[in-house]
Amino acid sequence: MLQEELIQSIEERAWIDRAADPVQDAVHGILDRAPGLAAFLHGRWLGHPLHAAMVSIPVGAWATALVLDGLAARNRRYRKAADTVTAVGLAGAALAVLPGLADWSDTRGGAKRVGFVHAALNTVIAGVCGASLYARARGRRKVGVGLSIAGYTMAIASAWLGGELAFRYAVGVRPQPEGRAEVRETAYPAAEARP
Question: What angle do CA 151, 156, 161 make, to 5 degrees?
Fold first, then answer.
C-alpha cells in the first residue's frame, strides 16, 4: 500500500535525525525546565491534546477560504472574506505549532522522523499561505488563489501525517485506565517515546 511505503520510507531516513535532534533537544530542554508550560501545551488543563484541537482552525479556515474564493470568482464581495479567513488559518497554524512541538518532543525513532517531516511540511504550508496573502494584498488574486489551493492540498497531506502520528505512534495520546476520567501527570506514552 502506498501509504505504508511512504511512512516506511520516512522511518528509514536516519539523516532526518541530524536536523531533528537539535530542535527536539531544545524543545525538550525548555519543557523540562517549565513543567507548567509543558502541561499547558500538552492540553492537560483541557483533558484533551491541545495540538489536535488547534489544528482544526487552519484546516477549517483554509477550506472555507477555498469555498469563498470559488464564490468570489462570480461575485467580488466574497474576496475580503476569503482573504480574512486565509489570514485566520495562518494565525491558527502559528498557534498550533507550540503544542505540536511539545507532543513531538517526547518521540524517537520513526515517530520522531515522521513528526519532523510533518512539521517541515507545515512550515512550507505556512509559507505558501503567507505568500497567498501577500499576492492577494498586491492585487494578484489568481496567484493568491492558486497558492491557497496548493497550500490546502499540502495541508491535507500533512494532516494525514498528523493522523499517522496519533494513530500509528500514539503521539499526543494518553490512554486512561478503565473507569478513570482524570488525566495522568506522566509524559505521553507514545509507542516510541523517550525513556
Answer: 120
